[in-house]
């Protein structure tokens, strides 16, 4: 089956050819796509990277999301202003392990190692907070790009966490309300970070996420760009079918555990719902430690599951 992006490009060429043919002011001889478009593309994209060139061929990018960095920092997120905050250091430690799994020796043993699902056992343990911080931290890498996908289609929270307004997203693409995934893949004012919102809820969300269309889209996410990390913010694992489906797409899982709230039985049940071939780690969230001066800070810890 044709790649979805290539199909979008084909349709764009056909529309452009039809427009040229019907234009009353056209004063040039009719030419085939092969005669005209390559030259136009070479000229238009002479100063951009191959990856940017490919994305521009699909069409103009959607309007970017503008993230308020000061607001995020005030709300306890990592700082992107260069401040050396404790939380920045903690997420650096977490992402180093994830990136090693994505692109290091272990990557050869994982399916889609660069696709990371962030989840929890139960709601309100901090998975979206963790997913957004991880995305921003990885986007600060010199040689990596990040796609953050809000796949919690039941209770999406990525846009709200980042202080952004709702837009069309993954559900609109899977239902066919938008034709191409590029229409809901939004750039941001973080150069290496793009976001796909969840979109509107749908009563067939489980079936849509399990569809062939979703499988092909995830494969494209995983394989098109060798420097890309894809982070899926997924629903909690216990009692929700969508999470088990999404677990089949990812090579890694980060399970967020709220200290003092999560039960050992819940954590064990969560791990059982994940693919046993994944690299699974745990982030302990809302863990307040006291330094010798009495100040407190949040702690985040990532540890790989032992086989």
Topology:
Layout: H1 4-22, H2 33-44, H3 50-58, H4 69-74, H5 86-103, E1 115-120, H6 127-139, E2 145-150, H7 158-161, H8 170-175, E3 186-187, E4 193-196, H9 205-209, H10 212-223, E5 228-233, H11 241-247, E6 252-258, H12 264-272, E7 279-285, E8 287-290, E9 296-299
Parallel strand pairs: 1-5, 1-6, 2-4, 2-5, 6-7
Antiparallel strand pairs: 3-4, 8-9
Helix pairs in contact: 5-6
CATH class categorisation of the largest domain = Alpha Beta
What's the number of domains? 2
Radius of gyration: 21 Å
User: Structural class, from secondary structure content?
Assistant: alpha/beta
Level of helix content? 25-40%
The largest sheet, given as strand count, sense and whether it forms a barrel, is:
7 strands, mixed
Helix-strand topology string: HHHHHEHEHHEEHHEHEHEEE
Mean pLDDT: 81
CATH superfamily of the largest domain: P-loop containing nucleotide triphosphate hydrolases
Shape verdict? globular
Report the total helices: 12
Query: Can you list the strand order of the major beta sheet?
Result: 3-4-2-5-1-6-7
List low-confidence stretches: 23-48, 50-59, 290-301
Give the end-to-end Cα distance, rounded to a whole number of Å: 37 Å
CATH level-3 fold name of the largest domain: Rossmann fold
- Tell me the β content: 5-15%
- Count every beta strand, where a strand is a DSSP E run of 2 or more residues: 9
CATH 2nd-level architecture of the largest domain: 3-Layer(aba) Sandwich
